[in-house]
Amino acid sequence: MAYSLGVDLVGACKAFVSVSERGSFTLGAAAARIPQPVASRRIAALERHLGGRLFDRSTRRATLTPFGREMLASAKRLVELAEAMEHDAERARLTPIRFAVPDTCPTRDLAFLDAEARRQGLHLDFVPAAPARRAELLAFGQVRAALVAVPADDGYWRVPLGLASAAPPRVETVHLETLRAGRADPVVRRRVWLQPEDDVPHIRDRLFRIRDAVGLQPAQVAVAPALTSAVADVLGSADLLLCSPAQAEELGLHWRPIGGVRLVRGFDVSAGTGEDAERVRLPLTEEIARCLGVPADSATPADQGEAQ
C-alpha cells in the first residue's frame, strides 16, 4: 500500500497505540500529549489510509476491531522505530565536532567561541595544533573540521603581522634592513623569530626572500621550535617576534608594522563535508575572528585585507 502524503503516519500510529492501550480516546490523547479531537482525526485518517476500522465506536470504550488488533503490533514497531530515530538524532546533534584550531588561540577567546557554539546548538571539541598538524589531522579524519592556514587572498579571516619587541621601539615602522650588523660591532645581530604558526610557505618563504634581498644573515630570520622559546629569546634580547597586534598585546610585547611589506595570516574552515564547514564558519564568524586576532575594526572577514 502506497504511503499517503496526507497522513502523518507516525503521529497517527502514536495516537492509535496510545488510545488502544488506555481504552479511551480522551485518556489516550492526554498520554500522547495532543488534544482529543486531534487524536480522533489522526486515527480516522489512519483508518482511511489502511482501508479498515481500527476501533469499534459503538461502545463507550475504545475497543479494537479485529482489523485493529491485527494492525496494533505493526503500529507499535513503527512508533518504537520513530522514537529510536529521534533518540539517535538527538545524540548525533550532541556529538562534539572535533575542531583543530591554532595553538596560539587564547584560552579565554576559545571559551567565548565554545559558549557561542553551544548557543547555536553546536558542541565543539578543540584540538590545538600547528598548521601542518591541523592539515594532517583533517586529512586522516582525526578531526571533522579545522582552521587551516591559507594565503591571505584565499582567507576568510585575515590577520596582519608585524614585529614585536620587549622594549618599546623608537620608530613607528621596523625596516628589516636596519637589522644588518654594523661595522663597529659585526658580531651582534638582532634576529627575527617566526613562531610555528607562521611556518607556512606563503609567510616563511616570502620573509626569507626579503631577508636575503636586504642582506641579512640566514640565521637572522629563523623559525623557532615553539612560541614559548621564541618569546623567551625576545624577552632576553633585542630580538623581534613576527606576530599579530593582538598576540603582541597578550604577550606584553610592543608591536610595529614591517616597513615596505605587508605579511598577513589567512585562515579558513576546512572540513570533511561542506555542511560541517558552513555549520562552523557562518554562525561563529565573529568568535573565530577574536580567537585568531583579527583586528576589531575589520568590517568583515571577506573584506579584511582587500587593499593588499
UniProtKB/TrEMBL annotation:
Native organism: Marinactinospora thermotolerans DSM 45154
TM regions (residue ranges): none
Lineage of producing organism: Bacteria, Bacillati, Actinomycetota, Actinomycetes, Streptosporangiales
Molecular function GO labels: DNA-binding transcription factor activity; transcription cis-regulatory region binding
Domain HTH lysR-type: 14-65
Annotated family: Belongs to the LysR transcriptional regulatory family.
InterPro entries found in the cross-reference section: LysR_HTH_N (IPR000847), WH-like_DNA-bd_sf (IPR036388), WH_DNA-bd_sf (IPR036390)
Protein name: DNA-binding transcriptional regulator, LysR family
Domain of life from the UniProt record: Bacteria
Keywords of the record: DNA-binding, Transcription, Transcription regulation
